[in-house]
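Exam revision sheet. Question 4 asks you to relate a sequence to its structure. Input first:
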Amino acid sequence: MKVVIDHASPFLLAHGGFQTQIEQTRNGLLELGIDVEWLRWWDDSQGADLIHYFGIPPLSYLRQAASKGIPVVVTYLLTEQCNRSESALAMQGAVIRLIRSIPGGKGFAGRLGWESLRTASRLVVGLECEKKALEHLFEVDGGKISLVPLGLHRAFLDNPRTISPKGDFLISTGTITERKRSVELAEMACEAGVSILFVGKPYSEKDPYWIRFLKLVDGRTIRYKSHVETPEEMAALLSSAQGFVLFSAYENWCLSAHEAAACGLPLCLPDMRWSRECFPGGGSYLDPYPSPRNPALLKAFHAACAGTLPQARCTLVGWREVATRLLAVYKETLSRS
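Answer key, structure tokens:
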């Protein structure tokens, strides 16, 4: 089987968890002995039995692939959509159906990528709430959707969790950007008197949001460490903290939270669909939007971490297992094409 991986946005323009997912998916497939390559757009002699596209491919892309007998498996992160309420999903779904029903509506839907999600040979998502969003918003056939979790590097799965004594701080990892609400979390920590170590980097050092964040870093309550280079270094850093906290506006399968859970940390997360599904064993939660209750909730979590607060319970798999599950999806997709 020859698998080609494609993605529309260069990593030099935007780093993050999606980059990790794409790179580690390829590495896992290679470990299984699968012939896998990046799509070389300039090479008209490159062959493929199947394309795995990360993002939403243009409708013309899917049609051209179909004309050559090449199925396209699509992984699209429904981070915002999967966290909406049932009523919000129903309303948006009704609007999308109305647009598709009017003259020219399908063409407009095609330009927005809606028709691509319906047309792809197979869709792969990590969460049941993402699957429901695809079905309710875009009327994707549920039989075309496969659930495959994201994996972790061996450095997290094999972490000995022996760092002692731990520091007095919480830790938050991820890109310093509006969606992660890093500034809002830092302001919350200042009000609560809770020390947080932020680990990550901005998309741009000229970003006004990044400049706002830097003004809050004092080395005591708000600490900062730039993006670390190796998974081993990140695992050690996580293990040195009391607990992990995140205040993202929305997520789906959050790699950072799973890495922290693998290192034995209790988690404090925004109370959303993704966090409840990823960590069904319960945990500590913040109100999902800025709330006067949150500083007290954060302070209570920090105090509990120093006691007997248990680590988070969740699904933890390596990238090889992820690749094994994807390979089953690929074989089924090829058998139906």
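Marking note for examiners. The chain is about 40% helix and 15% strand.
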